[in-house]
Amino acid sequence: MRPIVAAIAREPHGLFELQSLNIQEPTGSEILVRTKASGICHTDLLVRDGVFGPPLPAVAGHEGAGIVEAVGPAVNSIRPGDHVLLTQASCGGCRSCRSAHPMNCEDFVRYNITGDRANGTKPYQEAVSGAFSGQSSFATYMLAYETNGVVLPPDFPLAHAAPLGCGLMTGANSVFRVMAPLAGSSILVIGAGAVGMGAIMAAKIAGCGTIISVDLLSSRRDLAMELGATHVVDGADSDLVKIISDITRGGADFAIDAVGLPATAANMVRALRPGGHGVLLGAAGVGQTVELDLMDLIFNRKIQGAIQGDQVPQVAVPSLISLHMQGLFPFERILQFFPFEAINDAVEGMENGSVVKPVLLFD
Description:
Blueprint: E1 2-9, E2 16-23, E3 30-39, H1 42-48, E4 58-59, E5 64-71, E6 83-86, H2 95-98, H3 108-112, E7 141-145, E8 149-151, H4 158-161, H5 167-179, E9 186-190, H6 194-205, E10 210-215, H7 218-227, E11 231-234, H8 240-248, E12 252-257, H9 262-270, E13 272-280, H10 295-298, E14 302-305, H11 313-325, E15 335-339, H12 343-352, E16 357-361
Helix pairs in contact: 5-6
């Protein structure tokens, strides 16, 4: 047991409150990480608002990076002193995990969203939910697992590593692994936040010939052009699907909805050419439904979801870091840093659109 400070969500739509807690020591395959940086993702706000994840009060955060301080007796590949990035947790032993799809882990709920550790005990001495996405990174220390810890090069900045844990990885790996577009393909990306920007940069690397970014904010569209988009469209345009069809001469080969609203999901499907492949990445909460004409699906269109780009973290994260170090994946362009104590300012910037990707820094 050791004392920590955590940002706690206590009521829907409320401010995060800094409070002292006591975190348990790692057991089994757990690792204890001193937090150095954490990205903020819209999914964390779903936790804050009581829409998804562990019951309130809760410690959210699922893009943590830091330094390992202690490991459980069953941990083999991670040592104290290692710099690590944390992603979504998985059991490592189910059929999905063993077939290199840990994001589909059959024990997803137990490892990520109950508010308890996978062994059923509480992560904190106090009555506060934690262990969100196997980490709860809005705190000065995190309990995580060997399976969701990725050992980093010691000279790679932890402040840059943190946002690779979810948003950027979700967009990029959905292009690289889930879609795998051929060079010259056309791709539509709805939403130019961290997920969408990750997809745009990955599409450029993959050699897509037409990369269309759709967003409501002109500043986001301008940045998308700088990062690889060949065309931008205002998301408020009522002729959006026709515009995409005109640009691509019949519809996009690939499309991503990084927003996750019924209207954006429907536009993603309708903007695909016959045989096109659409991937839903955004999530606005449970209970969202979309109405589609089945004829929009029947002509060999493929529609799917992709949790965190269907990544194998220990493979996908080093790949993105390599691309970044080669200058091909300049994701630092979308980052804005805030001290941990200013978490509510960071959230406000993300919600009003002035900040694309906030990253919290810890002493």
